[in-house]
């Protein structure tokens, strides 16, 4: 990895360190982790549930900080990331790395001591997978980077589930698969209209390597695969008819987005699909949580 020598502006602000945690990404991670906790059978004391959610948030942010440390060279040449704290010189690279490592260790240790070690092990696996497998190994080597690496973002509901149950069960695996299959069309939509950024940075995203048309076909395939997987929670006892109807409608809308992208001659449908993909995942998990809370369940 090419190293960068950047002049850091003295006195980085609290906001700069918060930005290292990728708060927008963290918010969706935290919500899906909370959903796993609410959907799990059993009971967890509200204080411990709060600790579990905090640990998921801090762990996700920590891995984001380490990712920014490692990717500081390519971040500097991409318009979307050039203003991040490290390439812009607001935070030093070593400070960012130390910040991420300390938060990673602290969140995992706290999860183990306060909640249970199964959840802590899953949290450690999530951080390690994102840092070592996705960021350091896959991202710069293969167009399948986001397919395999997407597993890191799919673990949070499993962590929330394990925080309550101390185990990994079929429903939590289905929640994992839902996010795992959602990730490629979500990120490839972004890569389509940010293709120039990834080309300049030398990151082999699917549109760069296989071309836009092949990418669009794969995006459609993944949205079709999502339809039965997103419906599956209704058949394993963690969701009901309202969720089933909502997930089917949202899934068909997602497929519709992919079809419009497939036929498109400009970037506008890809931009709309990227925006809708975030709403899609949020609404799916909101339906799961809402239905459970209305029915009187929850951790």
TrEMBL record:
Enzyme class: transferase
GO MF annotations in UniProt: protoheme IX farnesyltransferase activity
Membrane-crossing segments per the record: 25-42, 48-70, 91-111, 117-138, 145-164, 170-193, 219-236, 242-262, 274-294
Its membrane topology: Multi-pass membrane protein
One Pfam family it belongs to: UbiA
Keywords: Cell membrane, Heme biosynthesis, Membrane, Transferase, Transmembrane, Transmembrane helix
Stored InterPro entries: Protohaem_IX_farnesylTrfase (IPR006369), UbiA_prenyltransferase (IPR000537), UbiA_prenylTrfase_CS (IPR030470), UbiA_sf (IPR044878)
Pathway terms, separated by semicolons: Porphyrin-containing compound metabolism; heme O biosynthesis; heme O from protoheme: step 1/1
Localisation per UniProt entry: Cell membrane
Major location category of this protein: membrane
Catalysed reactions, as listed in the record: heme b + (2E,6E)-farnesyl diphosphate + H2O = Fe(II)-heme o + diphosphate
GO biological process, one term: heme O biosynthetic process
Any one cellular-component term (Gene Ontology): plasma membrane
Keyword GTP-binding on entry: no
EC numbers: 2.5.1.141
Extra facts: Carbon 2 of the heme B porphyrin ring is defined according to the Fischer nomenclature.
Family listed: Belongs to the UbiA prenyltransferase family. Protoheme IX farnesyltransferase subfamily.
Function comment: Converts heme B (protoheme IX) to heme O by substitution of the vinyl group on carbon 2 of heme B porphyrin ring with a hydroxyethyl farnesyl side group.
Entry-linked HAMAP family: CyoE_CtaB (MF_00154)
The protein's name in its UniProt record: Protoheme IX farnesyltransferase
Organism name: Azospirillum thermophilum
């Amino acid at each position: 990895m090419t190293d960068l020598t950047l002049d850091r502006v003295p006195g980085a602000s609290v906001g700069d360190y918060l930005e290292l945690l990728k708060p927008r990404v963290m918010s969706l991670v935290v919500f899906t982790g909370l959903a796993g906790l609410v959907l799990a059978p059993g009971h967890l004391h509200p204080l411990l549930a709060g600790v579990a959610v905090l640990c998921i948030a801090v762990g996700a942010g920590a891995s984001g900080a380490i990712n920014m440390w490692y990717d500081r060279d390519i971040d500097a040449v991409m318009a979307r990331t050039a203003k991040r704290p490290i390439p812009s010189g607001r935070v030093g690279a070593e400070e960012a790395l130390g910040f991420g490592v300390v938060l990673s260790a602290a969140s995992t240790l706290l999860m183990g001591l306060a909640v249970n070690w199964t959840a802590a092990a899953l949290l450690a696996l999530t951080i390690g997978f994102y840092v070592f497998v996705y960021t350091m190994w896959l991202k710069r080597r293969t167009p399948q980077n986001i397919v395999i690496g997407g597993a890191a973002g799919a673990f949070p509901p499993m962590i929330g589930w394990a925080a309550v149950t101390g185990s990994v069960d079929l429903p939590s695996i289905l929640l994992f698969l839902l996010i795992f299959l959602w990730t490629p069309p979500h990120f490839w939509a972004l890569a389509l209209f940010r293709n120039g950024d990834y080309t300049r940075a030398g990151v082999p995203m699917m549109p760069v390597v296989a071309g836009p048309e092949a990418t669009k076909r794969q995006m459609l395939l993944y949205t079709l695969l999502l339809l039965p997987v997103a419906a599956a929670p209704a058949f394993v006892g963690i969701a009901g008819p309202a969720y089933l109807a909502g997930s089917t409608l949202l899934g068909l809308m997602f497929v519709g987005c992919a079809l419009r992208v497939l036929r498109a001659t400009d970037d506008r449908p890809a931009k709309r699909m990227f925006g809708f993909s975030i709403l899609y995942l949020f609404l799916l998990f909101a339906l799961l949580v809402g239905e459970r809370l209305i029915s009187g369940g929850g951790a």
